[in-house]
Amino acid sequence: MAVPAPFYGSTSVGTTAVTSGSTADIVYGVRVKASAANSNKVYVGLASTVTAGSTAATDGFELAAGSEIVIPVAMLSNMASLYMIGGAASQKAFFFGV
Fold first, then answer.
1. How far is 86 from 46, CA to CA, in rounded Å?
2. Is 81:46 a contact under the CB 8 Å cutoff?
3. Do residues 86 and 62 make contact, with C-beta atoms less than 8 angstroms apart?
4. In sequence order, what are the residues at sequence separation of 6 or more whose Cβ sits closer than 8 angstroms to the Cβ of residue 59?
5. What is the full DSSP assignment across 13-72?
6. What is the pLDDT of residue 60?
7. Engineered SS bond to 14: which of 10, 69, 74, 89, CB 3.0-4.6 Å?
């Protein structure tokens, strides 16, 4: 079996939910890390309705500056199904997937 090529990048995260901008298929999973330079939190979710700590039913997984999460392929079909929203404008998140 061939080893899949990794994909990686970063995206600007504000107060409106965004995707990574990638539609790459995921074979194993993806790691998402909030920039250490962020002034606020980034929230990660699996729907465009993800919220930033304001609604318990839709709040994403909270990432403080420098924090990260690994999301297994069982939860995502591709990068387009990963959403992020910031607790404030001008945040940044990095991703690395295989």
1. 15
2. yes
3. no
4. 43, 45, 50, 51, 52, 53
5. E-SS-B--S---B-SSEEEEEE-TT-SS-EEEESSTT-BSSS-TTTB-EEE-TT-EEEEE
6. 96
7. 89
Per-residue tokens: 44:
């990660």
Residue 1 pLDDT greater than 70, yes or no: no
Q: Are 45 and 17 in contact (CB under 8 A)?
A: yes
Name 53's Cβ contacts closer than 8 Å, sequence gap at least 6: 41, 43, 59, 62, 87
Could you give the CA distance from residue 74 to residue 56 in angstroms, rounded to a whole number? 23
Alpha-carbon distance of 41 to 92, in angstroms, equals 10
What tens digit of pLDDT does each residue of 27-85 get? 889 999 999 999 999 999 999 999 999 999 999 999 999 999 999 988 987 888 999 99
Are 8 and 85 in contact by the 8 Å Cβ rule? The answer is no
Residues in the chain: 98
Answer whether 0.70 is exceeded by the pTM: yes
